[in-house]
Amino acid sequence: MIAIRPATAEDQRVIRDIILQSLLASYAHFLPASFIDKTIENDRAGEIARNDGIRFAIAEQEAVPAGVMLLKENYVDHLWTHPNFMGQGVGSALLDHAAQVAAKAGHDRLTLDCFEKNVTALAFYRARGFALEKTYEAKILPGENACFLVKDLRG
């Protein structure tokens, strides 16, 4: 069973580790090695955990942290699943949680961004009701496209 709980200040290392492991497993096959290396060198995962850690939701499977998500209003800013738990419903549970929180707050849609080359993630999001609203050049990686995806929460 997957349980979702709010992060605490003590979860910074867990959040950092899940982001980093997920990044390596999910992005290394389609993003330039220089981008991955720079992200690791600059400890971007640690920066995210330090700056926003207590705003994350943590998915646990049998009390083991398996995934993390940062929801800002109705925008899924970060969704990461540890590679050991990919394909086990962790990401789906976090997205379901995000949809419930956003709907309860009065939002009629859930949104997120995804690299266009991340075909696995795009298929995952589409299978969960997200539709492409627009494609644009990714700000964090010029020359790469990102997709803005939307899920209707009204019914």
Q: Any descriptors?
A:
acyltransferase, 7 strands, single chain, 5 helices, GNAT_dom, N-acetyltransferase domain-containing protein, alpha+beta, Bact_Acetyltransf, 37% helix, 155 residues
In DSSP terms, counting alpha (H) and pi (I) runs of 4 or more, how many helices? Answer: 5
Whole-number mean pLDDT: 95
Cα distance, first to last residue? 26 Å
Name the shape in a single word.
globular
Strands ordered across the widest β-sheet = 1-2-3-4-5-7-6
Tell me the total number of β-strands: 7
Q: From the alpha-carbon coordinates, what is the Rg to the nearest angstrom?
A: 15 Å
Q: Considering DSSP H and I runs of 4 or more, what fraction of the residues is helical?
A: 25-40%
Strand content: 25-35%
Sheet with the most strands?
A: 7 strands, mixed
Structural class: alpha+beta
Element order, helices and strands? EHHHEEEHEHEE
